[in-house]
Amino acid sequence: MKKTLVSIYLLLTPFLCNAAQPSDESIEKLLTVAHTQKMVEGMIPQIEAMMKSMEDKMVDSQNLSPEENAKAKELAAATTKKMMPIMKAQLSWENLKKIYFPIYRDSFSQEEIDGLIAFYSSPAGKAMVEKMPIVMQKSMAATQQLLVPMLQQMQKAMTDASEELKQTADNKQ
User: Fold this and answer.
1) pTM
2) Which one of 44, 46, 110, 118 is CB 3.0 to 4.6 Å from 22, fit for a cystine?
3) CA-CA distance, 167 to 164, in Å (whole number)?
């Protein structure tokens, strides 16, 4: 009898220890107190500005004539202008919310969501929400400084590979 009870207890332990899954209402509240929508929507202009700056730097690094440079910048700006509505539509709050709910539900317990709500409702949490866009903006600007040289090196590697491929093809003929 004792062995049977221990066996039943051991079989049930994993189910008894599972934390409660958070409710949609609590996830919604967390996303609200963390100002997630505002943060996400605030990233779009930052991404757009970063893309503009990167395209300008890439065009400027090409050693083009003033006329070619102006045309290249025009083309890059037109391309970005076409891409932004696509990006904005895909990164809309309604689309992202559909993604966030299952991720939060699978990642956090109800107790953890409640703790996060308490944190984001506290003065420290409110300060984090208020200052995080500035932190992200500065981080993106700093990261951009790394991306431009990297993209230039990648472009050079691609050009070198293309030239090498062309020489290989010429040598075979």
Assistant:
1) 0.61
2) 110
3) 5
